[in-house]
Design brief:
The longest helix is centred in the middle third of the chain and has 24 residues. Strand 18 and strand 19 form a beta hairpin. The chain starts with a helix and ends in an 11-residue tail after the last strand. The strands form six sheets. Strands 4-3-2-1-5-6 form a six-stranded mixed beta sheet, with helices on both faces. Strands 7-10-11 form a three-stranded antiparallel beta sheet, with helices on one face. It is of the alpha+beta class and about 350 residues long. The chain is built from nine helices and 19 strands. Helix 3 crosses helix 4 and helix 8 packs antiparallel against helix 9.
Amino acid sequence: MKRNRVNRVLENMEKMGLDQLIVGEPASVYYLTGRWIEPGERMLALLISKGGACALFVNRLFAQAPDEDMRLVEFDDTDDAAAFLAEAVAPGRLGVDKAWPSAFLIRLMKKRPGLEILEGSQAVDQARMLKDEEELAALRRSSRLNDQALERTIQAIQPGMSERQIARMYEDNAIALGAMGNSFPGLICFGENCAEPHHETGDRRLKDGDSVILDVGLNLNHAMSDMTRTVFLGRATDEQRRVYDLVLRANEAGRRAARPGIPLSDIDRAARSVIEQAGYGARFIHRTGHGIGLSVHEPPDVSSANGLICQPGMVFSIEPGVYLPGAFGVRVEDLVAVTQDGAETLNALDRELRII
């Protein structure tokens, strides 16, 4: 068990008025136990009770070693797993992880009537949002490897390649460098497809004059990375250069603004105002960033709607973009880790306009 992390969750549970909490998301179970378990359709539940007692309910197929700091409750496919959990859950208020399947929750409620079920994810989410030194070191390593994997990929891009080919090439490079795989399916976009922020990588072939957005990340021992670079094949028009410079300045403004004590919405405003002042505000159509850690998207949200105060240990993306339908788009994304007096940028890959 990661007892220091469990204690932070217990503090959050107390603030929420929760005496017990079921954690079922594999990333959160890993965060608290150091055990990564992908249960598939089977039940996985870490029950945390007021006072600090923890019990892990898991199918025997996943062969978990005992832990003196945590009760291990194993079951077989022929057992009613929810019945084991119902015996351990106390009457009253029960927080439940947002990711825990409803099939198990409904069975638990039938076996333990009278429970007051609450959405309890914030207890773990708020703990995970503030990274400790071990997590920060892992995220730095993941981002450094992502820098290398993307640079190798950019250097190998050739006219006529498809978006899908480049996505596969990036993943091959990441694995060759030691990653477990992608942190998310790579978003590779050419030309007019770059005007779709979440374009689905397809068979569009690369041709001279295309903008190329490469939004990629890798999974290094469960530490996720995420970065975007935009390059141009052969040449860049005056408008492409102008938009690129604008987005780069917005990225820099957002990264400069990141520091403890300010609302996250102010970071969004710092990046967005650069683009708005240049007349492209309507073409920046998403939030400035998202948190990252064991999941590629997790709290905090860096948007105009989030007044949460920035704190040391938060790690999130700064990814402004401008998208011109039917023409091209540009996005430049980096991860930052908030420090005691500012923010550390985790990516070092060159951001200057690049023609390949």
